[in-house]
Amino acid sequence: MDPVVALVISLSCILLLSLWRQRSGRGRLPPGPMPLPIIGNILQIDAKNISKSLTNLSKAYGPVFTVYLGTRPTVVLHGYEAVKEALNDHGEVFSGRGSFPVVERVAKGLGILLTSGNRWKVMRRFLVMTLWNFGMGKRSTENLVQEEARCLVEELRKTKSSPCDPTFFLSCVPCHVIFSIIFHNRFDYKDQHFLNLLRKLNENVAILSSPWIQICNTFRVLIDYFPGSHKTFLKNAYFLEKIKEHQESLDINNPRDFIDYFLIKMEENKPQTEFTTEALVSLLNDLFGAGTETTSTTLRYGLLLLLKHTEVTAKVKEEIDHVIGRHRSPCMQDRSSMPYTEAVLHEIQRYIDLVPTNTPHAVTCDINFRNYFIPKVRFFFSHGIMLAS
C-alpha cells in the first residue's frame, strides 16, 4: 500500500475514533462548546488567562458546563453558588484530587496537595498534628509572625524611603516563618542559600503559570518527549540536602523541627512505605509552594490596592492607631476590635481572585449534580472547578 494512502487512512481512523469517544463520553454531562477531534476546545481557552475564558463560556452555557482539554471531558463549576453547593453539600464526593501531569512527574503521587484517599488522610493527620506541636494557631506561631514583621520593617527602613520594588521583601516574610517551623531557623535576607531557594521557588511558580505547562498538562506525551520549561521544573528538587543534614544529626529523643519529626516517623513505621524520603520531599514542596507564593502575592496586591484606594487606607490607619497604637505589634486578640481592617483584608482576598482555577479536584464516586451525571475519575477546577477523566 502507498505510504501516503496508509497515512491518510490512519489519520482518518484516529479522527473518527476521537469523535466517537467524545460523543459517547458526553452522555448526561453538562452542555458545552462542540469540541474538535483530538484538540477538543483548546482553541477556545486562552492558556494565558484560563479563568477569563471559563467566565466567557459560563455566560453561554451556565455555571455548570463541559469543555474538552484534548480528548478529556472536563466539567467546570463556575461561580460562588455552584462551587458552594458542590463543596458544602457534597464535600466528601468532591474531595478527590484530579490530574496535574507536570507536577505528578515530580510528586509521584506523594505529598498532600495532589494526593487523595488513605495516603492523603495519613499525611494530613501527620501534618496537622506536627504543625500543632510546633505552635501553629498558637501564641508561639504568632510570635514568629510578629518577629518577621519587625524584620520586614527594618529591611524597608534600610531603603531610606527611596523607591523600591517590595516583591522580594514580601516574598521573604512567609518563607522565613515556614523556615522557622520546618528547619528550626530563619535565614538572613542576604543569605546565599536562602536566595537560591527563593529563586527556585519563584522559577517553579513562573513555569507552572506559563501557557506551555497548560499545554503539557493537556497533551501529556509532550512532557516526556519534548524539550521545554517543564524540564527545568522537573529538575528543581531542592530539599534533599537539608534532609540529609538532618539524618546525620538526628536525635530521636530531641526533635528540633518538622523534618526531624518526619524522620522519626519513618523509623517508627518501617517497613511501611507512606513515610519515605521521597514523600518528605514532596510534602516540603507542597508546604512551600502553597504557603509562600499565595501569602506573598496577597501581601503584594494588598499593598497595591491600599496605595490605589487612599480613602480606605486612611480608615485602616485610623483604626490601627486607635486599637494598637505605635508602640507594640498587632496580635490575634486585636481582630475583634478591628472590624474595618479585617473586612478590608477579606475584600482584598476576594478582589484579587488569587487562585482562579483552584487545585484540580475529582469526584470520588458517580454523582448526579444539578441534573447532570458526573462519573467517577473526572477532575474539576473551581471558579471554574474543573472535573475531567
UniProtKB/TrEMBL annotation:
InterPro entries: Cyt_P450, Cyt_P450_E_grp-I, Cyt_P450_sf, Cytochrome_P450_fam2. It is a peripheral membrane protein. It is found in: Endoplasmic reticulum membrane; Microsome membrane. It comes from the Eukaryota. One of its GO terms (biological process) is xenobiotic metabolic process. Its EC number is 1.14.14.1. One of its GO terms (molecular function) is heme binding. This is unspecific monooxygenase. It comes from Spermophilus dauricus. The lineage of its organism: Eukaryota, Metazoa, Chordata, Craniata, Vertebrata.
